[in-house]
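[job 4417] fold queue: 2 targets
>>> target A
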Amino acid sequence: MERGSGEAVGHGGVPAARRRRSRLCADRLLDAAAGVLGRPARRPDGVRGPRPVAERRFLAQGLLAQAGAALAKGRLARYYGLYVAPPRYRPEQQLTLTTADGVRLNAWRLDGPADALCTFVLVHGFVNSSRSPGVHRFAHLLARRGHVIVPDMRGHGRSGGLCSMGRNEPLDVAAAVAAAPPGLPVVTIGTSLGGAAVLMHAGASGTVAGVVGISAPARGDLDRVGTHRVRKLVSGRVGRVVLAAALRTRVGPDCIYLPDAGSLVANIAPAFTVVAHDPDDGYFGPQHAESIYEWANEPKALWWYENAGHGGDLLTEELAERIMAETALRLAEAAAGAGPEGGGDAGDDLSGAGPVSGPRTS
């Protein structure tokens, strides 16, 4: 079959020369992938030109199988660590709490040093728990300077009840704060959904000395791919069944998906507010951190962590040290009756290479 120009035409009306170039391009891609995976980068027979269809198909299937196995191995390893065999606390560290609305919560308490700075209440994010590897490790880092209480929010881990996506989770924070030993200030720390919960609890209760929101949403905006995915899961019965069966997270059918925190954050002061966020967060964009920072009154600080990820991804030893240093500074200032004027930070890095406090500039 021929076009009017005399160019040979193959199947589907595609010129034969173009089809040949496409096959050569596909071969080059296969050769590149084969080189990455340690396979021969060239055909062993040394023949030039496109590979036979059967050979291309065989090699492509082999490469896809290897890539899929590697991907599945990484995901399965992460899933296994999160939901099948997460790290354990010691049995004597276990607590049972009851919220004001009657939900039984599982929690753990780690004792800090004799001169503990405060009690930290560490609250995990959505589809995580107190035993998520990052949360477990961060709790033990905080225990270097203070006592730590780590609850499972309702609908998560070993706790009862159903997750309400922010409406009732401040009650879970309140139950954990009430379990703190007397005589020491309490500082709450939360990631993602837990970050929203600790911020709203701090503004509503006035019972904490400070609050740290990590990757915390300011409201239920669906401005990122991650939030669309979560909203779709929690809004339908099938999605909620999948969450309960696969991710050990039980969500109520009447969840409202992240209420606006603006009316409460302004009431957190005189307790200090710290917001830690990745501007490229896949769930909540930088406007969430900026809104929380703007709503909060002094003393406050905004820490940007470029390319750090979301929620538990930020729970590093560096962040733990920074939070403990910030807490020591803020508590000392509060005890002296001299709160800061401009939201300073004990761990600021203004060199441009690390996280920076204060409003983000474009």
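>>> target B
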Amino acid sequence: MHDNYMIFPMETMNVTQTYLGKTSHYPHTTGTPKDYPIDIAGADSGRSAVFCPCDEMKITAIKGVGNPNITNTMWLVSTSPVITPTFTDIAFMTLTHQNDDDIGRFKVGDVFRRGDIIGYEGTDGATANHIHLVCGRGSSNNWTESTTGKWVITGDTLPPENVFYVDRNFTKVKNSGGLSWRYLVGKPTVRDTAKDQLEISYSDLIARTGPTTSAPKLGYIIMGIYDNLGSSQSDGYTWYKLADEIYVPSNGTWVKELPKQTEGDDPKVIEQLQKQIELLQQENATKEQQITSLNEQVTDLTTKLQSCENDIPDTETELYQKVQEQAAEISSLNQQIQSLQEQLQHCQEVPEDEKEQNCKVILTCQNNNQYEVELYEKNSLKYQINKY
């Protein structure tokens, strides 16, 4: 079951006593506060099982175990909202008369899930196997004494037919006790894209044995996915066939058609395309960030360039000074060379063994740079200058 319906908790419904009429339960419903107990038994006089009626329930209280003066009772509350015939909310139920060896296995806080056996019919405080069942909306964990002297369950107690659906797939009705139960029919399946299917999400949709409002009612269709076995028009509705002798009407909103999909409509392909789109969007966002960063860099460089342009006159002055310094250095060097030439013109005859040797002189300029001057044709006073 896909949705969290609250269903009758036994495989056979055999209501042996209700909250109506002049029975032992009568004082429970006529005092203040009050509750609405029913006695339920299984298919026979044995000890039939009581099952968890919704997705999950937790024990909130256990009383009476080992105490002959208190009848064994267990309080259970759903851990999430349940769908009932009259509300969708947290719900509770109490089970009374379980035997010690049954109820004594559990403790407050224990959790049951749909289909788990909570316990069995018993005879603690009773003469025959059965369960005294009380239920309601919200939470509960105690008794209180009413104005009629009966110990009733605390909380927002309600008639059981207002809290439990009867799932025809799970429960066989032997005796309804004359109460107006709401029955659930249908067996939802899973989505199969190779089939034409239907999705039903309306909780009060009544199924019938034929495609007309005059056909007998079967109960309320369980919400979920069904195979679409055909449709027809009648009594102002579109009638869909869900199974043999199970039809539901639609006014255009109660039932959604789910056509079978072609290969191009394959959800896996669509999912892959969506992922590719997400990746492209991420890449685009990254590129936009990069563009923003580059724009910031361009702005920064533009600012620096403007600053450099403002500094050009100073830079030209520095270059002019360097040129002047180099010119002065060259002038100093030329003066020293000229002085050297004049000295060589007045020098005496050079010895024979030195004639073929070049004359080298180290000159020092005003800025302390040193140069090597090599004279290699004395008569013509030709020379070569090298940085020392």
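[job 4417] complete. Note on B: Residues 11 and 170 are 6 Å apart (CA to CA).
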